[in-house]
Amino acid sequence: MCIGAKPKFVKAPRVSELIGLQWDAVDLEAKLLTVRRSYSKHSRKLLDTTKSGKPRVLGINPEMVRLLRISRNQSKSDFVFSRNDGSHLSCDSLYDQFKSDQMKAHVRIISIHDMRHTYASHYMMNGGNIYDLKELLGHANIKTTERYAHLAPAHLASKASMVCFVPAVNDATVIPLISPAIP
Predict the structure, then answer these.
(1) In 3D, which of 80, 20, 31 has the Cα closest to residue 58?
(2) Are the beta carbons of 109 and 102 closer than 8 angstroms?
(3) How many CB atoms lie within 10 A of CB 17?
(4) Among 11, 16, 22, residue whose Cα is nearest residue 71
(5) φ, ψ for residue 56, nearest 5 deg
(6) Of the four listed, 63, 161, 162, 181, which is most buried by Cβ atoms within 10 Å?
(7) Cα(25)–Cα(95) distance, rounded to whole angstroms?
(8) Which residues pair with 57 in a beta bridge?
């Protein structure tokens, strides 16, 4: 995808992993993406490893599969996200384009990293579990994942009635809240 495209990425890869993502890591038939490379801002080189040192496999949702198919057919680069000349992006160019797209869309400006937190929160609020989320985000420690999975107040309020010890109003059975004294 050339810079300027507005991808709806599947899971929550890091910016360095987006920059290092090449087509050989994308299996559109199996709907899987293998994160195994990253870009180092410090050395300004592609690395054959991720931040955690371990590759991870992510599922690709059907809409993203459709967009990636279109992009792959138009791409003349080994990189999924590339410059027009086919070379990989830099962190600065990705950040700049992301901010520019937000400004054009007249939405609140957020960081790319904020999208990882947003993904984590929505994943949990839609029934995901923290252990799978840990793997999807590529965290080594569950405590790190817990910091990502903020839950919206409305979601927490909706869960308040999951456990209730008082019978429903239309329930014919009445269970006393306090046990009567036993004679």
Answers:
(1) 31
(2) yes
(3) 21
(4) 22
(5) -140, 155
(6) 63
(7) 23
(8) 34
* In the predicted structure, residue 1 carries a pLDDT above the cut 60: no
- Both tokens of residue 56? 């991870």
How far is the C-alpha of 174 from the C-alpha of 177, rounded, in Å? 9
The two structure tokens encoding residue 128? 């995901």
Confidence of residue 71 (pLDDT cuts 50, 70, 90): very high
CA distance 95 to 101: 10
Token pair, residue 58, equals: 């992510």
CA dist 34 and 165 (Å) reads 46
Q: Which CATH number fits domain 1-105: 1.20.58.90, 1.10.443.10, 1.10.10.60, 3.40.1080.10?
A: 1.10.443.10
> Which DSSP helix (H) or strand (E) runs through 118?
helix 112-125
- Among residues 60, 43, 46, the alpha carbon closest in space to that of 17 is found at 46
Contact, 28 vs 59, CB < 8 A? Answer: no
pLDDT in tens, 140-168: 888 888 888 776 667 667 766 666 666 66
Other CB atoms within a 10 A radius of the CB of residue 153 amount to 8
Q: What gap in Å lies between CA 159 and CA 127, rounded to an integer? A: 12
3-state secondary structure of 2: strand
Supply 89's token pair: 């992006």
List the chain domain ranges: 1-105, 110-152
